[in-house]
Specification:
This protein is α/β, with parallel strands linked by helices. The chain has nine helices and eight strands. It starts with a strand and ends with a helix. The structure holds 4-methyl-5-hydroxyethylthiazole phosphate (TZP) and magnesium ion.
Length: about 220
Amino acid sequence: MDLSLYLVTDRSLLPVGKPHLEALEQALIGGVTVVQIREKVADTAEFLRVARESKALCDRYNVPLLVNDRVDIALAINARGVHLGQSDMPIDIARKLMPKGSIIGISCNSLHDVRRARESKADYVGLGAVWDTQTKKLTSSPIGVRGLGVLLEALDGSDIQAVAIGGIKSTNLARLLHGSVSRTNHTLDGVAVVSDIVASPNPETAARRLKSIFNACKRCI
Ligand code: TZP
Ligand code: MG
């Protein structure tokens, strides 16, 4: 799966008055390659509604949609997969519940997490938070570019894909890509971004900018 520009949604960060689907469509036009619907305050009915509407839009752009945390909602809308946290449903159980071929990703911020993700055969890992972020209350310190390199190294020899997350913006993306790959064979498959796209007055331009930096850096590393 193309994880190169991985959009994680957060409706609370939208500019005042901007509808979620409008921002999502602009980000899709700008070239995001995968979308994760992340809802931290919505109740189940609201989460389901947002996920279903977002799925219909992503389908039109042929972009896979993943659901954060909730296997039941992923199943209900026929999502491409789920993204799980360390305290969500274990991967082996999610794997049993989801249709064959579903994508299951997991957040990791330590070597222990990455080793467990390898054992449980995650399809991809989200590594971070790399840098501090206003989007999520972090329960441990940001891992930094060096920490990211260490976690990537722990993926060597596996076919698990990896994206970095946390504080990633067009202004620091080149630094992230150059720094994290200089010490490992396992390169990043993509970057996951929330606020730099969602909170932007122009998500299309924001996505396009991130993608062109990612692609340009990929060619020289
Ligand atoms: N997980 C680790 S950091 C983060 C999540 C969901 C939020 C990243 O948001 P932003 O706005 O891209 O820093
Ligand atoms: Mg979670």
